[in-house]
Amino acid sequence: MLKLIKYFKPYLLLILITIGLLFAQAMADLALPNYMSDIVNVGIQQGGIENAVPSAIRSTEMDKLVVFMSPEENARVLADYVLIDSSSTDYDKYLKTYPALANESIYVLKDLSEEELTALSPITGKSLLVVSMLKTAMEDPAKAAEMSGAGFDLSRIPAGMDVFTVLASLPEDQRSQMTAAVNEKFASMSDSMITQSAASSIKAEYEALGVDMGKFQTGYITRIGGLMLLVSLVSVVCTIAVGYLSARVAAGVSRDVRQAVFTKVESFSKTEFEKFSTASLITRSTNDISQVQMFIIMFMRMVFYAPIIGVGAVIRAVQKSPSMTWIIALAVVLLLSMIVTLFNLALPRFKRIQGFIDRLNLVTRESLSGIMVIRAFNTQNFAAERFDKANVDLTQNTLFVNRLMVILMPFMMLLMNGLGVVIIWVGAHQVANSALQVGDMMAFMQYAIQVVFSFLMLSMMFIILPRASISAGRIGDVLAIEPSIKDPAQPKAFDAKTNGLVEFRNVSFRYPNAEADVLHNLNFTAKPGETTAIIGSTGSGKSSVVNLIPRFFDVTEGSVLVDGVDIREVRQEDLRNKIGYVPQKGMLFSGTIESNLRYADENASEETLKKAVNIAQAEEIIAEKEEGMQSEISQGGTNVSGGQKQRLAIARALVKQPPIYIFDDCLSALDFKTDSALRRALKKETGKSTVIIVTQRVSTIKTAEQIIVLDEGEIVGKGRHQELMKNCETYREIATSQLSKEELA
């Protein structure tokens, strides 16, 4: 995958924006369980009371609270409140909020920060609980006995006296002991439990002040619920934006990689093409890049998100209940064990699947391309068996991997349900022991699920990664190949004095990985205004010779010169601009007749196109078509005959009007009449150009100014027809086998 990392550079900004959005989404998702906890704990159980610090309290109740505070705590609490009575400037404002102000003065809490409220809450909360307990004890003698264990011996208070008055009148050292006893009693309780326990006392105080607690509670739940909806909306927007950006990045990278692969393949010589099959190159350009594209989408949406949500959920779960974190650890261990097992089983299969896809594409392509041959030899069953073998191999491996992946989801659901049961079981005992609130237990369960899902997402990436990595490696193999035929660092220009002169000097050539040369010490010159024909038996090296001129291959020894310049010293583009090449098998592209002709020159005039068609003897092809030049040509030219395809290919070369024409045995598909007419027309059109014809027909080259006779890669004859008939045994054998005595004359 690292081989393709450079293709992400143009999309770095989008990737950074995506990471930012994922962080925002994760924070939003992490906030939702906490809001749910607040609604349950504060909104439902505590009636909307958020902390143990009353926002307002009657002066008589404040006097009771300060009794159970140290002098420092007393001073701090009173400093955080403002005493409001009938003489206060804000009396009328507070009277509307707290109707009890009409009867007695009240203390109103100042505007404090969250940190200040958090520090103040345990102080007021403990005092509120003690006051509540004392009030209950005074009403129930059985409760009074329990208070004695906390440092309060209520039995010693004279009957009829107010307990709080008596306690306030105690000496400072006794009150300090009493305060220490209070702190010791509540030492085991968390701040949240103190708040929850004190909420009932604060609620009673608010009711005494005349506050509508039903409206108060509803307001809190509505406010937190609104925040939940807003945070959920943020999460949804971020999710949509991340999906869009990740898809855009993945599509862009895939497009660039696909373009790079295509451009690289275009630069391949025949040597590089032989390293890959056509089916494999198609698979690498389509299926492999699709695998990488899918991985990029999943990577951007999961790999960046999962660590944030996982770490955040662990931190928040620990904050809610440190004693239950072992449950999350156990779930993660079980999940990872399952993932590792599946990963080890699936990885070898992933590596084999891409190879099976290549094989299936190859068999399919061969079967469809050679369908007529298959039918002619009645080998449909054999072809079906080949396809079935490739199809079954791919299917079996794909099914094996899919079955492994199917196991993962039921295991995941079982794990999640089991996790929920364990959390409820353990959490219920802690709730019963006043060590945990119900809302915190519910939030812990949500965070535990988020942790497990984060590990699941990462694990899924590690399952997808091997296949994507293999695909990326296969793509990288194509991109990493350096073409054997390259443009020179400092290219030369062609000699302007000549135009079309082709010269072979001591040329020898050997195919890559071959043991012997196929061409040996070739020397000849093809001049402008002349036709140079190359003839020989099958395998004599004719096509190899002409493949060297456009640099489809480079010579092993010697040099090929065009216009006096070694073709290895000029740019390939400049070289090929001088050549009109017609291969043995005419290749037409899907489109129209006109679009195929314009491959040679997209700016060619209509007159040029018509002239090329007439010279190539292809006017009848167009005349037969209702749409003329706009007639459709199917892929590979399958809707025209071999001869028609060849004539259109020749016409395409003529549209280019180059100084050098190469006809690689392309006239063999033509009948003798068309062949003769075409050669006559070609002679007139290409009178100033260098024409090189490769053929096995002697009749085609009888009039050539120069005939090169090849035999086993060596020139065994050179000259005109009559000269070779006298001096070259190989040529004479070929000619006499094809022509009558009258034709030979």
Please explain how this structure is put together.
There is one protein chain. The protein has 745 residues and is of the alpha/beta class. Among the domains are: 51-217, no CATH class; 588-657, P-loop containing nucleotide triphosphate hydrolases (Rossmann fold). Helices cover 62% and strands 10% of the residues. It contains 29 helices and 15 strands. The strands form four sheets. Strands 9-12-13-6-14-15 form a six-stranded mixed beta sheet, with helices on both faces. Helix 25 links the parallel strand 12 and strand 13 (690-695). Helix 27 (721-727) crosses helix 28. The longest helix has 55 residues, at 213-267. The radius of gyration is 46 Å and the shape is rod-shaped. The protein starts with 11 loop residues before the first helix and ends with a helix. The model has no long low-confidence stretch (mean pLDDT 84).
Give short descriptive properties of this protein.
745 residues; alpha/beta; Rossmann fold; six-stranded mixed beta sheet; 29 helices; 15 strands
Quick structural overview:
With 745 residues, the chain is α/β, with parallel strands linked by helices.
Please give the structural blueprint:
Elements: H1 12-45, E1 56-58, H2 59-66, H3 71-79, E2 81-84, H4 91-97, E3 106-109, H5 114-139, H6 141-148, H7 163-168, H8 172-185, H9 191-208, H10 213-267, H11 270-273, H12 278-285, H13 287-303, H14 305-320, H15 325-369, H16 371-376, H17 380-432, H18 438-480, E4 502-509, E5 519-526, E6 531-536, H19 542-548, E7 557-562, E8 565-566, H20 572-577, E9 579-582, E10 591-592, H21 593-597, H22 606-615, H23 619-624, E11 632-633, H24 642-656, E12 660-664, H25 672-685, E13 690-695, H26 698-701, E14 706-711, E15 714-719, H27 721-727, H28 729-738, H29 741-744
Parallel strand pairs: 6-13, 6-14, 9-12, 12-13
Antiparallel strand pairs: 1-3, 2-3, 4-5, 4-7, 7-8, 10-11, 14-15
